[in-house]
Amino acid sequence: MRLLFKQRFFSWLDSYDIYDESGNVVYTVEGKLSFGHCLDILDASGQYVGTVKEEILTFLPRFRIYAGGQCLGEIRKEFTFFKPAFQLDCNGWRVEGDIFSWEYQITDAAGEAVAHLSKELLHLTDTYVLEFPDPQNALLVLMIALAIDAAKCSAGD
Questions:
Q1: pLDDT at residue 89, as a whole number
Q2: 46-78 in b/e burial notation, b at 16+ Cβ within 10 A?
Q3: What is the spatial distance between Cα 132 and Cα 135, in angstroms, rounded to a whole number?
Q4: Contacts for 125 with CB less than 8 Å, ≥ 6 apart
Q5: Measured between alpha carbons, how far is 43 from 17 in angstroms, rounded to an integer?
Q6: DSSP count for the chain of H helices, then E strands
Q7: 107-127 core/surface letters (b: 16 or more CB in 10 A; e: else)
Q8: pLDDT tens-place string over residues 89-135
Q9: Exposed, middle or buried, 96 (CB in 10 Å: 0-12/13-18/19+)?
């Protein structure tokens, strides 16, 4: 499965549209006014499905992820020198980026690839392509991409 994650151009708060391979909007993401990033995810019919919320007053960026009102876990940026890395504590996944923070590989506890995120360049807004074989992972992969983008925004990247 493949999703296109695109930030809206005119928006006071973080807002994104998420498209499938056919160009249909499958999710919308609306930023909320809060301390730290708080992103609500709505499905194509406008129903709430999840939230990515930044924890404040932490040394490195940390986000809690919620689906259906229940906390699934945290995504934490790890301290690294050259390549960004994130730990996801809800299912043992790990996220590693390239030195330029344009490509990210998500792997499971056994080191098997779960998803690939790539930032498209030469766009006016943040645009990512999310690729993953299991459609059941769509929401979680999207939440990871949102947390990465928010962490980069907080760092001024």
A1: 85
A2: eeebbbbbbeeeeeebbbbbbbeeeebbbbbbe
A3: 7
A4: 6, 7, 8, 9
A5: 10
A6: 1, 12
A7: eeeeeeebbebebeeeeeebb
A8: 888 888 888 887 789 999 998 999 999 999 887 766 678 899 999 99
A9: middle
Query: Which amino acid makes up residue 118?
Result: S
Summarised one tens digit per residue, pLDDT across range 20-44 is 999 999 999 998 877 778 999 999 9
> What whole-number distance in Å separates Cα of residue 88 and Cα of residue 145?
12
Q: Which residue has the tokens 């983008």?
A: 149
Average pLDDT over the chain, rounded to an integer: 86
Tell me the three state secondary structure of residue 37.
coil
- Domain range list for the chain: 2-155
Tokens linked to 59: 């040394």
Residue with tokens 């992820």: 65
CATH for 2-155, options being 1.20.120.450, 3.30.1130.10, 2.40.160.200, 3.40.50.150: 2.40.160.200
A 10 A CB-CB count for 155 gives 12
User: Beta-strand (E) ranges in 22-89?
Assistant: 25-31, 38-43, 48-55, 62-67, 70-77, 85-88
